[in-house]
Amino acid sequence: VACLGRVRVGSIADGGKWMCSPWRVPENCVIYSLGSLGDISFEMEMNELTNKRCSILTSDMNEPPQNIAKTLHDHGIKFVKGKIAASTNENEAEHTIDHLMTANGHEKIDVLKMDIEGSEFTVLPEFMKKHKVCQLLVEIHDMQRLAWLLREIANIGYLLINYEINLLKNGLSEYSFIHSSCLAKYETHYLSG
């Protein structure tokens, strides 16, 4: 699909992602950025583009440096340490997305950004069958299973906004999708031809 407001949010390096009209996210929006790897440029720019009207949660397996943790806190962005997994194991600091939503009082996610080092194959299909996220921004790590995951995403109503090869990480690709029910909300339309 074509998005009139397609823009890269966050750094040009690994932390940023392409998305559609980020300024059009609804009031009381919820944004999850899973696998931040210490790069919070996406979270900070989304906070600014949405005029701080969104609840933003970021997660990573490692604690951020103190200055980044302070910046997140000062801007009202919540950080949760842990690995995103197919099942929750508190002892191992592994969380499902559903667990994070329940723990943080979120009933929906408007924008889901993921860079979870290959766990997208076990986490994403089941989560997306239960929850409709308007925009899904994901780095896919396993090219041998890529076609399978793209079919799973397409079969539940997601359309491609953008695709790019991650030049910093050999063999990885970045994908941005929008759910078909959100096209009008984000000024997106089907390409003709």
From TrEMBL:
Boundaries of every Methyltransferase domain copy: 2-178
InterPro entries named among the record's database cross-references: Methyltranfer_dom, METTL24, SAM-dependent_MTases_sf
Domain of life, per lineage: Eukaryota
Pfam family, one: Methyltransf_22
Name of the protein described by the UniProt record: Methyltransferase domain-containing protein
Organism annotation: Pristionchus mayeri
